[in-house]
Amino acid sequence: MAVQINPSILSADFARLAEEAKAVEGSDWLHVDVMDNHFVPNLTLGMPIVESLSRATDIPLDLHLMIEDPDRWAPQYVEAGAGSVTFHAEAAAAPVRLAREIRAKGARAAMALKPGTPIEQYEDLLPELDMVLIMTVEPGFGGQSFLDIMLPKIRRTREMIAKHGLDLWLQVDGGVSATTIERAAEAGADVFVAGSAVYGAVDPAAAVRTLREQAGAAIAAAPWGCDH
Questions:
Q1: Residue ranges of the alpha helices (H) in the chain?
Q2: What share of the chain is helix, strand, coil (3-state, %, to 5)?
Q3: Is 124 an active-site residue?
Q4: Which terminus of the chain, N or C, has fewer Cβ atoms within 10 Å?
Q5: Which residue of the set 28, 36, 62, 173 is catalytic?
Q6: Catalytic: which of 28, 33, 36, 62?
Q7: Any known ligand binding at 143?
């Protein structure tokens, strides 16, 4: 199972985004949080920044839309340069149609779930997706502590993926660090969003490598990872 580490620019210096992207070269994706101050109580960046960032780095952009009306906006973020677009299950009016539209435009389609949203009601939608994001904090702000109570939900999601034989990535976002990544990996995650754990390090690129090694070792030792 290939581990992927996606540094979150929410923890980067917004005045130096091009340089901050260069600082994490070797990462699998660059995670970009788009917040509208409606779906979540915070306002970050939007379309013009995504367009500029996509031109400034060769790292593909992993867009996480914490916004209302993703059915309208998500396809436009593909056109702005995103290689993967994640919409929230709680905000999408027609998630299957939206996932298909994102894919049709050439990006990977992903769906995120807040901590309080159960995965079970979305089991039938999984074949329409390329990735599921289990939030391990309440979305809206960086720097929060990892919620260990999400580990059973990660395990159940991994079991669903295996049950249906899907080639589906399982991402976690929120409080991922050197002290939490192994627990998330053992539970079933293989894509990890890390903000302050990367950009708060003296050497961000080295932090990415360390996190990847930790997660890889945990997956290799986990029951679910033995078949991959």
A1: 17-22, 47-56, 70-79, 95-104, 151-163, 181-187, 196-199, 204-221
A2: 45, 20, 35
A3: no
A4: C
A5: 173
A6: 33
A7: yes
Q: Tens digit of pLDDT for each residue in 93-145?
A: 999 999 999 999 999 999 999 999 999 999 999 999 999 999 999 988 777 89
Cβ-count burial of 58 within 10 angstroms (0-12 exposed, 13-18 middle, 19+ buried)? Answer: exposed
Across the strands, what pairs with 194? 7
CA dihedral for 169, 172, 178, 180, sign (positive or negative): negative
| Three-class DSSP category at 116 | coil
pLDDT at 227 over 80: no
Judge whether 64 is annotated as a binding position: yes
DSSP-based three-state secondary structure for 226: helix
**What's the one-letter identity of residue 176?**
V
33 labeled part of a ligand binding site = yes
Find out whether 196 is annotated in a ligand binding site.
yes
Residues whose CB is less than 8 angstroms from the CB of residue 124 and which lie 6 or more positions away in sequence, other chains included? none
Bridge partners of 108, per DSSP, are 84
